[in-house]
Amino acid sequence: MTNYKVKRTLMGQLPYGSDLYDGLTQIILRENICLGRIHGLGATTFARVAYYDQSTKTYNPLEFTGGMEILNLFGNVSMRDGKPFVHAHIVLGDPQGRVFGGHLMPGTKLFACEVFIEEFDGAELVRAREERTGLHLWTSGDLL
Ligand code: ZN
Questions:
Q1: Within a domain: 2
Q2: For residue 43, what are the domain limits?
Q3: Taking all residues of the chain, what is their mean pLDDT, rounded to a whole number?
Q4: How many Å lie between the centroid of ligand 1 and the Cα of residue 14?
Q5: Ligand 1 centroid vs 55 CA: distance in angstroms?
Q6: Structural domains in the chain (count)
Q7: Would you call 26 helix, strand, or coil by DSSP?
Q8: What does pTM read for this prediction?
């Protein structure tokens, strides 16, 4: 089993009004991070996520207008189409504390966001489309 070690940890906040997914992608490209882990928390003014329908193998979009808490943002960085790629899921809380979430899509606008990005040392993980699930999964690396 491959043992990944943390090479460095970036910690900071993303700008008010910025796009969460695009912002994360810009950081990993700028910092040349090909393998890593993303954690975050904060709040959105608008959120766009998706639910993956396993029968149709399509992402169905969901949108949340108004302020939502980012209770958890969790993701990873690996390679897709020859470039570092962010895959992240987000858990959102509404004013009553109800929880929603999904696969993070471009278009989520931030009120605030504090993120940790850990870069790992180790063999790259490469994504490619897998026929059975229709998802772009890791085709390299270990099956645990
Ligand atoms: Zn996903």
A1: no
A2: 7-142
A3: 96
A4: 21
A5: 16
A6: 1
A7: helix
A8: 0.94
